[in-house]
Amino acid sequence: MSVEEGTANHGRLLGTVRGPQDVKRMTAEQLDILAAEIRDFLIAKVSRTGGHIGPNLGVVELTLAMHRVFDSPRDRLLFDTGHQAYVHKIITGRQEGFDKLRQRGGLSGYPNQAESEHDLIENSHASTALSYADGLAKAYALRGEKRAVVAVVGDGALTGGMCWEALNNIATAGNPLVIVVNDNGRSYSPTIGGLADHLSSLRLNPGYEKVLDTVKDALGNTPFVGKPMYEVLHAVKKGIKDAVAPQAMFEDLGIKYVGPVDGHDVAAVESALRAAKNFNGPVIVHAVTRKGYGYRPAEEDEADCLHGPGGAFDVETGQLVAAPSVKWTHVFADELVKIADERPDVVGITAAMAEPTGIATLARKYPERVYDVGIAEQHAATSAAGLAMGGLHPVVAVYATFLNRAFDQVLLDVAMHKLPVTFVLDRAGITGPDGPSHYGIWDMSVFGVVPGLRIAAPRDSASLREELRDAVAVDDGPTILRFPTGTVAADLPAVRRVGAVDVLAESARTDVLLVAVGSFAGLGMEVAARVAEQGYGVTVVDPRWVRPVPAELVELAAGHRLVVTVEDGVRVGGVGDALGQAMRDADVRVPLKDLGVPADWHPHGTRAQILADLGLTAQDVARDVTGWISGLDAQPVDPAADEATAKN
Q1: Is 25 left (phi over 0), alpha (psi -120 to 50) or beta?
Q2: 3-class SS at 138?
């Protein structure tokens, strides 16, 4: 039976769920049926839109148990990263929105305050939920509000330093807070049965804690034998606990621990969560789950259990429906391996994104030369600094949006030491369906202020390969290479090169210098053709290296009547701003207009839709350029200026 048939025939129970209260009323047998229906629903819907299918199949029972134990939205449920919140959305009355998941006008792929009162945090960067939870718990305690705070954190997120900073503060504050560790990367089996359940209940019994504290105080005041005796008793207790529930990850945090529990057993998770809820302090509930659970193609996908197919996929096989194409990431990965073949000093670093960024290609050939540091971009940058100090040239590959988290490290740990580290930013610019927290629109602005840092923006496959080689050849400071998501643009050869600047098109008339940054080169060519139809000449250039501003670009600007920049990044502090400053410094008084992305939170949708909304299409830009240059023609003549020009 197909998934679609399963959804139609067995979705009757799911159809009755309009909110968490409907789930609370169900029997154990009904919950098992509901879990199966939710999986059928998810597979059927996400196979049409793309999205994070693997993580959500793994948290069905876990999410059901959470909504049965806690009272959302009064109790706050926080999902770290948020890509595993689809089941939460289903339970909180948003089933209809899944027909347009991650599409314009449909559900976001992450929690979204505008969608539901059950969603609180929208930031989909990992390792942040525990810090939110710490602050919320402190606020509720100070205000005297009896509201539970629950943070769901994946074992991958625990590789991020923010989690451990937050855990340290959570333990110190001692406020009621439940931390659910969704562990889908463990090889050991959860401990199941009455003894484990009994020990979990015992550890969370306030009377038990009081007795332990009393014993500790009494023994501590006993000369000679007191402290050693307490340490022996504590070691015995800890030994029994570890024998039943492995917890090396959480040792000595000062936070109570329950688990591991079978994350696919609603009753077991409920039992642990209720015990944690009734304990007046912070508790870790360790739930072991299987990513992609219940869907064979996901379970058998060794790479990432169908973590997040970027588009529609075949339900039977899990394979993407669209024909494969050459992606920007593929070109980078291929060229990096070629460079590594030639240069044994080149090494790769990534932050839990080996496959998506292409670093995995290098790892398959040179595993000893690749380092995946987990969700720890700050550490990645400074570790790269150490590698560079040790005589290597690290290539750090991350999504553009995630490098924002390591600004201080890039500034002070890498750039101030003038270290040769190359940062490769995938998914730069407007990326589309993943929404505002994933848009890589900040890098050229944010990192443009770093002294000695060079930023390149390739326009096509050939320029990506060339500029990557240029970057790793730099030995006196850091470099950034940025490119967008999706299919790589067709190669666009330059007419000529002026210094570092590629001239892509030029005319007998020098009315407009159009500076097309990176992947907007093709748009620039189309704009030039449209503006030419109105009788104006446009020179289209690709600066290749946008920071620092090439001197040749300023010289070219001086020879035109109008300069227009168009970039796939925020305007404030972007390439247009930088060029404008360079022109002022050189006393080039040609007017400049900069087109780019407004510094705002732009909704999810396709890249094309969002660029159209922002007026960054060939038609829009051509209309603007024509209006600006014709406006210069219409300006009144200044006789005094003409006379001065004639005298000169």
Answers
A1: alpha
A2: helix
Give the C-alpha distances (Å, rounded to integers) separating 359 from 124, 352, 414, 431. Answer: 22, 10, 21, 20
377 close to 406: Cβ distance less than 8 angstroms: yes
CA dist 389 and 381 (Å) reads 12
- The pLDDT value given to residue 24: 95
Question: What pLDDT does 642 receive?
Answer: 47
Catalytic residue among 39, 405, 427, 465: 405
Joined tokens for residue 522:
């093709």
Give me the pLDDT at residue 247, please.
54
pTM for the full model? 0.84
pLDDT of res. 197: 54
Q: Which residues of 574-602 are buried (b: 16+ CB within 10 A; e: fewer)?
A: bbbbbbbebbeeeebeeebbbbbbeeeeb
Q: What phi, psi does 15 have (nearest 5°)?
A: -65, -15
Taking each continuous run of H as one helix and of E as one strand, the counts in the chain are 27, 18
Answer yes or no: 482 catalytic.
no
Residue 73: asked if its preceding bond is cis (omega within 30°), the reply is yes
For residues 627 and 332, what is the distance between their CA atoms, to the nearest angstrom? 39
Question: So what's the pLDDT on residue 382?
Answer: 97
Which backbone phi and psi does 629 adopt, to 5 degrees? -70, -35
Cα radius of gyration (the chain): 29
Query: Which one of the listed residues 39, 45, 291, 427 is annotated catalytic?
Result: 291
Looking at residue 218, its pLDDT comes to: 55
- Whether 466 sits among the annotated catalytic residues: the reply is no
pLDDT the model gives residue 3: 45
Region label for 422, one of left (φ > 0), alpha (ψ between -120 and 50) or beta (otherwise): beta
CB 574 within 8 A of CB 447: no
What pLDDT score was predicted for residue 302?
Answer: 76
Compute, in degrees rounded to 10, the torsion defined by CA atoms 530, 534, 535, 536.
Answer: -60
pLDDT of residue 307: 81
Among candidate residues 377, 465, 567, 571, the one labeled active-site is: 377
Q: How far is CA 251 from the centre of its chain?
A: 29
Low-confidence ranges of the chain (pLDDT < 70): 1-10, 185-252, 635-648
Cβ neighbors of 102 (< 8 A, separation 6 or more) are 49, 50, 51, 108, 109, 433, 434, 604
Residue 68 annotated to the active site: no
Q: Are 347 and 387 in contact (CB under 8 A)?
A: yes
CB of 484 closer than 8 Å to CB of 429: yes
